[in-house]
């Protein structure tokens, strides 16, 4: 555990961090989950085609990427609490607006911009900074996995709830309830945590200067390591956009046998995805300290590419359930491994900003997949082309992750006789950080 927390209170405070973080991630899943299930109804409500309405999800993904570096800067300079509390308040405002007003331009602003900031300010970037601040190196992966599993439980518990509510509850009433929930069940616990669970910024052990100017950070964007890590993370964004926007309509539009019900198949698939996401995140958190992270990334993206290809060529009730299980097992692992690599490569002083910049690339892939996938569905009448496109993107991420490992090995060999290289702390072959 971190030396920042007195040993007498360590257990209670660390469990408090996990509990509050888990709760925030759990409830934040409703931002995309409710939209995901109500996608067709919302398109009909505004009398728009799938491709046109998918612009709202694409804008959401793009804005999530644009604000992620801002969120990272806030976390680096002021700590994660201010970021997360602001996100909870903005989420409450966004869903109140969505519930009161039924206007598509306003929907684009409230969901595509405000809700995007809210999700970025509450989840992966600030949670990563928070975990890095209070947990020792050997525990970071498991702690981050435990907290991020709030999203998995959201799939397990909340997705069937959204599917059931979708059969009788109007979107406006649901949006108002979600807005109130963020105010009372997210902002209030975070306010308590800010007063009782202190955050202490750890020292930077990466070998890089801690107070780096903007020009120095921007220079990192031209380095092969960042480019390769960004390409691999873009595959995560593309495949997550597929789940968030296109998987549910794909299930809803695929004919099922006479003794089956589409809503039941959908609810079962989303719940299974959540169950395997839970197990997969814990496995990734555990393995992150024992195997090469880049190789594990390549494996996860390879599994995604294969299962997406099968889904594209053979959509059926059985395929949906198997796809949900296999994809779910890889779902959070790519985020956890990328966060850990980012910390070990760049150090805690600028980790928030660098991970935020990686999330910008991640969300650009979300934007492209969300919008182009919807347009492809309108043009072809099916999601086959969309699914195959995402599978191809994941294949590119496999290549990027493998090359990342090779480039890191070469960089380490070239600097073995020089000052300590941050690559060594990334758990790459031969590095001192290996075997955390």
From TrEMBL:
The chain crosses the membrane at residues 12-31, 51-72, 84-102, 108-130, 142-165, 171-193, 225-245, 265-287, 294-313, 319-343, 355-376, 382-408. Keywords: Membrane, Transmembrane, Transmembrane helix. PROSITE patterns: MFS. Pfam families: MFS_1. One of its GO terms (molecular function) is transmembrane transporter activity. Residues 417-436 are annotated as: Disordered. Residues 14-412 form the Major facilitator superfamily (MFS) profile domain. This is Predicted arabinose efflux permease, MFS family. It comes from Marinobacter daqiaonensis. The lineage of its organism: Bacteria, Pseudomonadati, Pseudomonadota, Gammaproteobacteria, Pseudomonadales.
